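TEACHING EXERCISE
Course module: macromolecular assemblies
Task: Read the component lines below, then compare them to the predicted structure of the full complex.
Student: A.B.
Group: 4
Components provided:
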Amino acid sequence: MPRFLSLLDRVKEQLKGEKSGSGFTREGSLLILDASPLIVVGDLHGDLISLETILNEGRINERLKSGWKVVFLGDYADRGPDPLRVYGALFELKLAHPESVFLLKGNHEGMEVVKFLPHDLPWHVRNNYPDDHEEVYRSLLELHSLLPLAAVVDSWLLLMHGGVTLGMTRRTLSYPSQEELKLMLWSDPYEQAERTSVSPRGAGVRFGPEVSKEALKELGVKYLVRSHSAVPAGYRFNHQGMVLTVFSAKHVYALKKGAYLALEPFQRLESGIHLF
Ligand SMILES: [Mn+2]
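Instructor-supplied answer key:
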């Protein structure tokens, strides 16, 4: 059996049993984290160079040993050259620090709600594991179904891949309908006054400042940190600073900068943005 498959099995076992641990609890698809020093990494899309840069420059291993938590915002595969090595590195990290490393679900881990393109993951799986490709791919899809959708960090942050929805509550984050899940994985913030409008992506919506304000108030947090939009500067604020986009797949998207966050509890978001 390929080593990758055994790592994958161990991560799935970990996720299946994940209910609570040091500084976190899990309710359905929602993680609730105590406020602690925190690294947040945006979309990776098979960009191993960006991931390695963040692991090194962010001193992730060292920080994990001293009480930091690390949250990845989803979209690990598709587009970039190294999705399986990105997964492999993330699995190693999760298994070494199961109560401090969290992999959230992106729209590229949501094939069951929306079929999307490009989806080159099956091609990489077939190339790397010609004898076991069906089993590896099926196992990756099972992993996707086990990933949490969002994390609420006590009275501070909401972390998720896409965005908030009308009428969002802790309950809809924990146990979303298929339609809510689709919106949460695919939506983007925009600055118009309308509450929502049609998204050019063909899935999800664009949500306005009032929708963000209501959702953050309902959840008792101050900011939404999300990824999903390949912003050229690596980060972008929307909605009077309430919404921060962080995007980490710099090389795959040929961005000017890639970004990640390294924050002490309740630190101003601006001062926790790290560019590479
Ligand atoms: Mn995405």
